[in-house]
Structures are given as C-alpha cells and as structure tokens.
Amino acid sequence: MIITFTANPSLDRTVDLGGPLVPGGVHRIGADGLQPGGKGINVALGVHRAGLPVTAVLPAAPQDALLELLEVEGLPHRASPVAGRVRTNLTVLSAPETTTKLNEPGATLDRAEVAALEELLLAVAGPGDSVMLSGSLAPGLPVDEYVRLVVALRERGARVGVDTSDAPLAALAAALDSAAPDFLKPNAEELGQILGTDGAALEAEAADRHLEPVAKAALDLHRRGVGAVLVTLGGAGGLLATEGAAWYSPSAPVEVVSTVGAGDSATAGYLIARALEEEPPLRLARSLAYGTAAVGLPGTTIPRPDQVRIDASRVVRL
C-alpha cells in the first residue's frame, strides 16, 4: 500500500487569463477550474490513476468541499476532523506561458487536532507500506513534524519519503543521522536550501550539462542515509542518486501549459516505478515522464498512465 500524508491540503482554483497579467489592471477570466490539491493528494491521485492501492491521509472538516471532490475522484482517503476550513490556492495562467500562484497559509490546528492527525497516520500505516510525507505544514504543526513522523513510521516497518521545503526541510536535513528517510525528492531550489546555495544556479548549470554539483549533493545525502534522492530540475530534467550511484536524464520537449503539480506527478511516477520493482534508470525515466506529462496539462491535473510517454534511452549513469 502507498499512503500519502498531506499536512496542509487545499482546494486548487486555476484561472486562465488568455493574455498577459498586468499588475494593477482589470482582467477577465477565460477559463476557471477547481480541483483537489495539496502535494500528497496530488501524488495519491497519480498512484490511484495508475491502478495501484493508495490511501490519502489529511486533515479536513467532515463537510469540507475538498472531501466532496475526493469522493468525485474516487480517491481512497482518511480525514482527521478539524475545525478550520481547507485553504484555497489560486493559480493564474497568463501569457506568455507564465504561472502565478497565490497560496493561503491554511487554518491553524490546535494540539488535539495535531495529535489526532498523527494518530490517524500511524494507525493507517503498517509494515511494508510506503508512506509519502508531502508539502508544507499547516499552522500549528511543529517545524520538526516530518522528523518525528519519519522516526515513528520507520519504527512501524514502513518506508518513508519526504517532499517539503523551507524550515521543515532544514529540520529534516539537520536530523539525517537519526531520521534519514528512504526517499527524498527536492527540486533545485530545495536542494539549494539544503546546501545553502542558489538553487536556480544549480538548475542552470544542469541545463548546460554541468551536473557535478547536483550529483555530488544528491550522493552526499544518499551516503548520509537517505535511501534514494530524486532531484527534479525543471526543464533541465532530473537526477536520481541511489544504490551508490547516480543517473541523469534530460526532460523530453513539451509545450508548457501549467507547471503546477509537475513535481508531485514526478513523485507519483517514482513511487509507481518502485512499487513495480523497476531498476533505478527506469524509475528515473518513469518519474520524469510523469512530470513532463503534467506540464502539458491544465491546472493541477495529474496524468493518467495513457498520457505518459516513458523513454529510458535518455537516462545516463554518471
């Protein structure tokens, strides 16, 4: 079973202006859509659409609109009740190929709600399960929440992945000696946060095929105990460090419609590949294929398997 944990879920509203976004101007919306959101939910949707067993764990009030959308999607989920409403994230698509995101912080969870959410996740997960901890932390959750959950879940025999940023990522990076996850998925910016360097520069170097800085950083994290490190590099592709080696693949060319959810789709692709017991090169190829497919879809649309084109011939061992 693959279990995703979304500590700060959202309703993702996407509006397409059909033209440029002008600060201070008045715009008319050409298209408007509402989808379930939050990184863990996105990952779960990708896994579910691939036909693999999955459960999404999240905090939400019983009558929250997000749960209605999950029911429509048919996504298996378990919600821990909270008093506040799920936040709304607004994505604005404008010309030329520009995505602007406006994200709410989310409602604050009190201590009882935090404890209940943790208890639910630990009750759902068991030996042999893969648990993916994804996204930002809702207000009220401690900054080291993922550190604590990695330890608790691994004690239960589960494999644990993490995809987060900023302070929660810094807390995890500082605790790798005792809380190294089985899987870590930073993008270039997040890898830069771990290294204390410019993530945009790392991505630009990778685009020029100067891969040594990214490969070294990913392998260093792997040697510190992280089972697999998947670094997504936007248009420059991605790199996977695992089993004592590193592999790289450039991205396939694609017309960009929306970049929202591309990283989560890549995570879903990796988890699917691992569940299928594929070797590292094919895991990387499947992951990037999912991310590439997502970029060509509107809003926070997570691809189906028939929309994914896997090309393992692009993968090279470094």
UniProtKB/TrEMBL annotation:
It comes from the Bacteria. GO terms for molecular function: ATP binding; phosphofructokinase activity. Pfam families: PfkB (PF00294). Coiled coil: none annotated. InterPro entries: Carboh/pur_kinase_PfkB_CS, PfkB_dom, Ribokinase-like, Tagatose/fructose_Pkinase. GO terms for cellular component: cytosol. Residues 24-305 form the Carbohydrate kinase PfkB domain. The keyword Chaperone does not apply. Keywords: ATP-binding, Kinase, Nucleotide-binding, Transferase. PANTHER family: 1-PHOSPHOFRUCTOKINASE, 1-PHOSPHOFRUCTOKINASE-RELATED. Belongs to the carbohydrate kinase PfkB family. This is 1-phosphofructokinase family hexose kinase. It comes from Brachybacterium paraconglomeratum.
